[in-house]
Amino acid sequence: MIRPATKKTLRWAAAYIIAAAGLLWVFHDVEWAKLLKNITGLDWRWVALGVFADVASYAVQGARWRLLLKPLGKISVLQTTQAVYASLFFNEVLPFHLGEIARAYPVSRWMAAPLVAVIPSMALERLFDGIWIAVGIGITAIFVPLPRNLLDAGDLFGLAMLALSAVLVYLLVRKAREPSPKPPSKLRRWGPARWVILNLLRLEDGLRSIGFTWVSAAAFTVSFLVLLLQALSFWFILAAYGLRLSFWVGGAVFFIVRFGTVIPGAPGNLGLYQVFCVLGLTLFGVDKTAAAGFSIVVYVLLSIPLWVLGLLALGRTGMTLATMKAKIKEGEAPT
Q1: Average pLDDT, stretch 253-261?
Q2: Domain residues of the chain, as ranges?
Q3: C-beta neighbour count of 273 within 10 angstroms
Q4: What is the pTM of this model?
Q5: Among 8, 195, 209, 226, which one is most buried in terms of CB atoms within 10 A?
Q6: How far is Cα 22 from Cα 176, in angstroms, rounded to an integer?
Q7: How many CA atoms does the CB half-sphere of 46 hold within 13 Å?
Q8: Does position 190 have pLDDT exceeding 70, yes or no?
Q9: What is residue 261's three-state secondary structure?
Q10: What is the tens place of the pLDDT at every residue in 279-316?
Q11: Phi and psi of 65, rounded to 5°?
């Protein structure tokens, strides 16, 4: 039997190997002189717009999260935004999107609420994002011919979002009629399965507490603004790099990158981000050298604010990097 520590090492090694392989493919056969010329010719006015839109998108995400946390009590937009940025910093320095776990801890402490009570609001955020991405792909397909593979993936993704939405509506609508069942006593003998089932029941209770109200409707609407700002940020950096593609083409490439980086990988999705960025741009006729250069430029320009603001936000949560890593480790282990 492989020890847990060995499994963790193997997972981390696999993430870094995949990232390295992706970067090797991205930079294979590129024209280095042309790549460096493109990078040094940035229009910094467009860069400023792109960075501003990206930073604003996470502030809007903080406002959305505050709406979904209303049933638990009061918390400020500044605090939720700080937690969002702290989690982004973790995603930039740790693999496998562990920042998503980390951002729940400071919020649960500030609100004096159980950690598990915060998780349903985060699950709703991801569902709302998924629905708007599926809608965005559909709208983009009206204005620009999309590759068949992307359309097929979008159809499957849309069906998955539709199924999850149906489950969500069922849980929210039955709130007043059917209380959550109590966990059966025999779960005590089920080991890890007990941990999974209990947390699923708690997640269901959390979703009911949010309810099908103006709060959830407002958060769903705000989710569109989050996605729009991020797509605009990507498109602004395209313009800064000299790739004057239409907003709809930029949006299509943005969706391809979002799809690809859902897969847990190396810190900051390094490697995967560049691969899907290059794949998306070359599908629309951009040569590989220009696409490879852009994949690095957009990654660095949009990551630097996350590193700076994320580190500052982490400091304001009152928790250190070591403390948060310990909390993540606690959260990963069934108790």
Answers
A1: 91
A2: 34-332
A3: 25
A4: 0.85
A5: 226
A6: 50
A7: 17
A8: no
A9: coil
A10: 999 999 999 999 999 999 999 999 999 999 999 998 88
A11: -65, -40
CA atoms within 13 A on the CB side of 219: 26
Alpha carbon distance 72, 109 (integer Å): 12
Neighbour-count burial for 202-219, b at 16+ CB within 10 Å, e otherwise: bbebbbbebebeebbeeb
Rounded CA separation 51/73 (Å): 32
CA 63 to chain centre: 16
Alpha-carbon dihedral 286, 290, 296, 299, rounded to 10 degrees: -40
DSSP 71: G
Neighbours of 29 (CB within 10 A): 8
23: Cα separation from own chain's centroid: 21
Distance CA 186, CA 87 (A): 37
Tokens of 233: 């940020």
Distance (Å, whole) CA 237 – CA 294: 8
Please name the amino acid found at residue 319: M
SS3 111: coil
Which residue in the block uniquely carries the two structure tokens 């109590």?
182
Residue whose structure tokens are 């709208």: 139
